[in-house]
Structure formats: C-alpha cells, structure tokens
Amino acid sequence: MTQALQFRHKLIPYLYTMSVRATQTNQQLVEPMYYDHPNSPEAYRNKNQYLFGSELVVSPITQRKGYSTDMGSCETWLPAGRYVDLFTGLVYDGDRVIKTFRSTDKTPVFAREGSIVPLDNTSADGHVRNGAPIPEAIELIVVVGKSGKFELMEDDGQAEDIESIKFAKTVISFDQDSGRITIGATKDALVKERTWSFRLPAFEGDSKSLDNISAKIGSDKVETKVKRDEKTGAVIIILTDPIPSSKEIAIELGAKSKLQRNDIKTRALEILDRAQIDHDLKWRVWEHFEQKGLSHNIFLSRLKAFGLDEDMSDALLEVVLAQD
Fold first, then answer.
1. Which residues form the domain of 87?
2. Are 39 and 9 in contact, with CB atoms under 8 Å apart?
3. Would the pLDDT of 104 be above 70?
C-alpha cells in the first residue's frame, strides 16, 4: 500500500496534465476501452480494465489469488500495438486477450510504444513530501518502438478558474527513427531549473550501446549516468546536473531503438519459486524451461504434459505467449 500511494504521488505531473485535458476537451482521466475502440467487441467484453489518461491501460485484479500460483489473475484485452507492463517490464504484443498473473504488490499497467509519462522525481531519495509543489526533478517514462509526444502542463495554483490560469508548458517528444528524446524549453516556467532522468522500460541494448547514449543542450554535451534497473530491466538515464528550464534538451538513444524480448526463464523462475506445488514437479518444469532448440509447438505440448492445474499452466503461458 505504501508503494502504491507513493507511486500515485509521483504520478501527479501526469494526473494534473490529464485533469487539464479533461477540463479543455472533456476527455476524462478514467474511461472505458470502447471510448477509443468503439468498433472492437473485446473493448465491451473486458469491462474491468480502463484507459488511464492518454498513455496508459490499467487492468486491476479484483479476484482472490489462486492457491497454486499464490497470485491473482485477470483477463486483459490489449488493442493492436506493442505494450510494456510498467511494473514487471514484460513486453506484450497487442490485438489479443491475455491472462495476466501478478502478486499482490503489482497491478497490470500497460504503456504502448511511443508513450511518455512524466513523474515527480523530487522524492527520489524515498522521502515523499507533503502537498504537491512544482517538482524540481522529473523522471520521464519513455517507451521506445514508435514516436510519441506529450505536453506537460503546470500552474502555480493561484488562479480561481481555468480561464485565468497561465500554464507552464513543456513539450516532450520521442522520434523513433533518430532515437532522440527532446524536452523543449518550458514556456512560462515556474522553476528556473530542473533535474531530469529517464526510465526506458524493456529497452534493448548491450553495455556498448548504453555507453553511446548521450545528452546535449544545443552543441554542449551534458554529463549523464546510464544504468539498468536490476528489478525490471529498464534502462535509467540520469542527467547529473540541473538544467535551466529555458533550455532545450536532446537525449540520443541511437536510431531505431526497440523493445527487447522477454526473459522467459527469469520470469518462469519467479513463478515457480512462489508456486505451491510439489517440489519435484517444480524442478522438472524448470528443467523444461532450460532446454534449448525446441520448437514452439513442442515446447508448449511438453509443458502441457506436466499436468499442471489451469492457473499454474496459464501463469507460465502468459510470458511464453506474450510475444509472437
């Protein structure tokens, strides 16, 4: 609960921007899937999931967890495209209904390729502040694979109605072909400078390509730190010094950046580790996942032959079938 509430607090820049959108366009923060996909039958059948602003799809698990998996599950319809679960780093091909399994500390939250989500990162040290002052540090979640754009909206909280607000606007974009993230100069900025960091879920790249990631203000290079999150596999880029809000920032990731393949063995090990099944059966299933060179059909048929119950089988199949 603490983690969820703290993440909600970090989401305030995104939530506020979506609130401005709701006021100006009547598009609400939470909307059913069929608002964006009125001609898709699946959008009406999967009633428990919803659009969460312009960038996210949320599919809350509202059923009790299964005994064998020690996880809850739900069915989720993902429209066409490719998506990343922000909390697990798993990549999913869309245009399908999937059964997602999660422990009680995670909710399936999907961001499509090209999504940009701003977070308040001022409390990066773990100490969440009261209230919601204009953040002096922002973390941008950027999902590569397609180009995307997001306009961050802020205000000083002094106006009495929407017509009187003088918004601070920061245009953030990602160009897929060049692999460039651009943060435009903030119009009518409320803070003189900011510290920026970037989280790239499921970003494909070896240590050499990560070393080539760079940041510039104009022609001047900006010092960066690049690392991988050990828990989710996301690449994290940190600009070490605050940047004036009047300056445009360019982050060069490399042309044609793409999402990586799921690490099936690691996810399978996580599922088997918490599973409430016979230990010898766990071991035999794990040995199956370690085999190499099996065709897709043979792999699936042998997995089915273990006689796992439906929940356990579906939990393992989720990650195997997530990507074509």
1. 2-112
2. no
3. yes
